[in-house]
Amino acid sequence: MKNVNRLYKSMFYLAGPMDDVKDRGLGWRNEIKKFLWSNDIGVLCPCDKA
Q: For the chain, what is the domain count?
């Protein structure tokens, strides 16, 4: 059976604490973004402001 990435081309919103957190939650968000992008999964991060 072929291993299928069922989340391919999907988007994830990285919800989580930002207030009262020393790094505003950037640490874990940056780590998981790299992993998701490497699997062709999009990321919406509230810490990324345009």
A: 1
